[in-house]
Importin subunit alpha (Artemisia annua), 520 residues
Amino acid sequence: MEIYENKEDTCMFLNRQVLPAKKAFTACAGTACIEDDLFKIRKKKRDEILHSKRQLQHPSTIVLGKKFERMYPMVYKLYSNDNNMQLEAAIAFSEVLKTGVRKPPIKEVAYLGVIPRFVEFLMREDFPELQLPALEALINITWGTSEIVKAVVDNGAVPSLVKLLDSPSDDIREKAICALGNIAADSLWSRDIVLDQGALQPLLAQSHEHARLSMLRTVAFTLSSLCSGTPPPTLAKIHTALPALARFTNSSCHEILECACHSLWNLAVKDHMIQPIIDAGVEYGLIQRLVQHIGHCCSSVRTPAIATVMNIVDRSPRQVQAIVDFGAFPLLLNVITNRYGTTNVEKEYSCWTVAHIASENENRVQSVFEAGLIPPIVKLLRTSDVHNQVDLLKAVVVVIFHVTAKGSNEHVRYLADQGCIKPLCNLLVSTDPAMLLWTLEVLENMLNVGEVQRVLAEDDNYYADLILDSAVIGRLYALQKHNDANVFSKAITIYKTYVQVEGSKEAVEGTGDQLSKLQI
């Protein structure tokens, strides 16, 4: 990881963050959060920034082979007892790791056996000029593979780096924090080692009100590394960081916001974390700030903000009214309607947030309708690809499910008038069991509403007429042989309850050719 000469801009490494874990999908109210796309986007962004910064700092073309040839005698100098030779070699290694090529020679340098020596130099309090290039080299080396990071840890770097957090030099402290963040971001094992070595408290001490911006960025990055991973760290290990994370959500720096929101997102996937997060953030207006960040111009801030709000409304119903009062609905509407150039992941998380709110009661459903959220959600249902946008469609269908389960007859009729029934029926060809089950639940709810109205009015079942055409009857028939027990059970229930015996045989026979081709 490259280190800048400009001390106010030493946070290039922010983009090496490990993303929070995705929230597990459950058949009740869970959500299938997508992590892979986010990771690819952030990795691409990190690599682009890394390359552009190196090109900026090293405008001349550097041939790695020629640069690397002089490293062998530098190994000798590095292990010498002469201070000047040690310093010359440490600077040389630091520079070669910052070359203008896209991939620095981390593995090649590590295989020269220099890691133990750099770790030794960390303790040279009598020679801080040597500590700095040693730190820079280790920061770049810890951007390497897990094998290389493990070698750094096994050579005792973590306790030495933690001790450097008490250094009188701002530069040394900041670079030590950076190295700890890179180590913690590599794996759960390395993350827990950094926490167990007592890094958190001296790290938090660096985020005081007089700290320079680059220091705050570095602290925020390292906190995000310490909060990341699946599973996240225990509350006992990380609870003292919650006030700092809440405070960082008020920052005007989008890198700090990004780290804080990702940290909170990852921690909020655990039920027992929600209330401590909320309590720690009261002083800093955390809930309001998270809601505001749903409308942030940067997707790297907006996405984790939406995801954190989603987790809060799912796991802390007491906060739902506050989230609504702080203006979540208009911002979620903007995300769903693509006003910000939003991604499918952000639309998915927004729909899950709406679904969790609508799941409470009819009044909540009414508030969703009054916010104008239903038409664009139904539009997503009509326009999304059943095979390539499964997670987004599941979130959309769950919103519709809660409307049909908790809403009034008028709410259900409005859904039908918006044209949601045909695209819902089209989802019965999905190969995703969860998608099929949610869709069947929605159709059953609609049919039940229609049946009640039929009995009261002594008329036809309005929704049965819209839903049960020959194609849908054929799909219901086929789903009775589905491998998933919940799917075939629900299909059997709907089939036996609402498909008329007289017409069903003829309808099924009429679609015999279609049934033979169904791959369900």
